[in-house]
Specification:
It is a single chain. The chain has 2 domains: 9-174, Rossmann fold; 182-366, Dehydroquinate synthase-like, alpha domain. The chain is 50% helix and 10% strand. The chain starts with 8 loop residues before the first strand and ends with a helix. It is of the alpha/beta class and 370 residues long. Helix 6 (181-197) runs parallel beside helix 8 (233-250), helix 9 packs across helix 14 (337-346) and helix 11 packs antiparallel against helix 13. The strands form 2 sheets. Strands 1-8-5-4-2-3 form a 6-stranded parallel sheet. The radius of gyration is 20 Å and the shape is globular.
C-alpha cells in the first residue's frame, strides 16, 4: 500500500517569469527576494507589471536563522492587512523564509513555539505562496516544509505543514544563468542528495522513486558539463528539471540519514549544506546493498547492477567536482564522527532511513571515511 500526493501547479520553461503577473492575478502581494543586482532588476520588472507590493523583504540570508526571521516577520505586523499572496523570488533560503512569513502572520513567536513544542498549529497563519526558484537545488518550490536554523542554540528545525505547499512553482531556468560555480555545485548536489535520500527511505513509493531516478541520472550526467559551461541554458534547464524532480520525490518522503548527518556539520564547521549532505552518499549507498525491492532496483537504475562499483563511481564523481568523501576532507575532527552519527541515527530523519547504523559504521571504516 502506498500513496503519492503533490498539489503544486508547476510551470516550467525559459521565459516563464513573464507569466508571474498572471499568477498574482491582481491580488495584493508581498515580495520576498534577495538584495543583489539581478534581483533588483527582476523586482523593477515585476512592479511595472503587477503593481507595488504591500511589502518587500529583501534582506534574506543563507540558512534562515530564528533571530533574523523574527525581525523580518514583524514587518508584516505593520501592514494594515496581510497580503493575499507571497511571491518568493530566489533560492531555497528565500522560499523557506517565505513559508515562515506565511505561517507567522506577523508574529514569529507563534512559529517558534510550534517548532519547539509541536503544538499551537491552530494559531498559525496560511498565506498562499508563489515560488519562483532561481537556483536548482532545494526543491522547496514543491514541498510543504522549510528549514529553520537556530545558530545561537546550535539547532535546526523543520517547519512542516500541508498548507505550505506553494500554490504555483514557476520554474524559469533562464533565471539561473549567471550563478557562480560554487553555488551551482552545492545546490545541484543538494538535489542529488534529495533524490537518493528519497529512495533509501521508509516513506518511499514507486512514483517518488521514478522521479528520484530521473533526477539523479540527469545530475550525474549533466552537472559536470554545466560546471564547465555555466552559461549553457540547455544544461541549466536539465539541472533545473532534475532539481524539480528531486523535489517531487522527497516531497512525499522527506530526507533521511545523509541530511541528518549534515546538519551539525553545517552548524559546527560551516560546510555548505549541499556539500555536507552529499559527501556521505557513497558510504550510505554501499551500506544499503541488499535492501531489495523497488528501492534497490531504483538505486541500480542510477548506479548500475554492481552497487559497490556504483559507490566507487559516485566517490570519483564527487572527487572530480572537488568534494572529498572523508570527514577530514571537510575539516571535521575524527573524534566528532561517532557523536554526529549517533545523533543522526537517533533523529527524525535518521529514522526515515531503511538501513542500519552498524552497516553504515562498518562501511565508513572500510571506505576510509574516518
Amino acid at each position: 500500500m502506498w500513496t503519492y500526493k503533490n498539489p503544486v501547479e508547476i510551470m516550467f520553461g525559459n521565459g516563464q517569469f513573464s507569466t508571474l503577473v498572471d499568477m498574482i492575478a491582481g491580488r495584493s502581494y508581498a515580495l520576498v527576494t534577495y538584495p543583489d543586482g539581478p534581483f533588483d532588476d527582476l523586482t523593477v520588472d515585476l512592479i511595472a507589471k503587477a503593481g507595488q507590493p504591500e511589502l518587500i523583504i529583501n534582506d534574506i540570508a543563507p540558512n534562515p536563522d530564528t533571530r533574523l526571521l523574527a525581525v523580518q516577520s514583524a514587518r508584516f505586523a505593520d501592514l494594515a492587512e496581510m497580503p493575499d499572496v507571497i511571491v518568493a523570488l530566489g533560492g531555497g533560503s528565500v522560499i523557506d523564509s517565505a513559508k515562515v512569513f506565511a505561517t507567522a502572520g506577523g508574529d514569529f513567536s507563534k512559529v517558534l513555539h510550534f517548532l519547539q513544542s509541536k503544538t499551537g498549529e491552530a494559531s498559525l497563519s496560511a498565506i498562499p505562496i508563489i515560488a519562483v526558484p532561481t537556483t536548482a537545488g532545494t526543491g522547496s518550490e514543491v514541498t510543504c516544509w522549510a528549514t529553520v536554523w537556530d545558530e545561537e542554540n546550535n539547532r535546526k528545525f523543520s517547519l512542516a505543514r500541508e498548507v505550505l505547499f506553494p500554490e504555483v512553482a514557476l520554474v524559469d531556468p533562464a533565471l539561473m544563468l549567471g550563478k557562480p560555480y560554487g553555488l551551482t555545485l552545492a545546490t545541484a548536489l543538494d538535489a542529488l542528495s534529495h533524490s537518493i535520500e528519497s529512495i533509501w527511505n521508509v516513506n518511499a513509493n514507486p512514483v517518488s522513486a521514478r522521479y528520484a531516478v530521473a533526477a539523479a541520472r540527469a545530475i550525474i550526467q549533466d552537472l559536470p558539463k554545466l560546471l564547465g559551461d555555466l552559461g549553457n541554458l540547455d544544461l541549466r534547464s536539465s539541472i533545473a528539471e532534475a532539481s524539480l524532480n528531486a523535489g517531487l520525490a522527497f516531497s512525499n518522503t522527506k530526507t533521511a540519514i545523509a541530511h541528518n548527518i549534515s546538519y551539525p556539520i553545517t552548524l559546527g564547521w560551516g560546510v555548505q549544506h549541499g556539500i555536507a549532505c552529499s559527501f556521505t552518499l557513497p558510504t550510505i549507498l554501499q551500506s544499503v546493498i541488499g535492501i531489495g525491492g523497488f528501492r534497490e532496483e531504483s538505486l541500480k537504475a542510477i548506479f548500475g547492477d554492481d552497487l559497490i562499483k556504483g559507490a566507487d563511481n559516485l566517490t570519483v564523481f564527487l572527487k572530480q567536482l572537488g568534494v572529498g568523501h572523508r570527514f577530514a576532507d571537510h575539516k571535521i575532527p575524527s573524534e566528532s564522527f561517532q557523536t554526529i552519527v549517533d545523533e543522526a541515527f537517533a533523529g527524525e530523519r535518521g529514522k526515515n532511513f531503511v538501513g542500519a547504523k552498524e552497516s553504515f559504521l562498518e562501511t565508513a571504516i572500510h571506505r576510509g571515511v574516518i
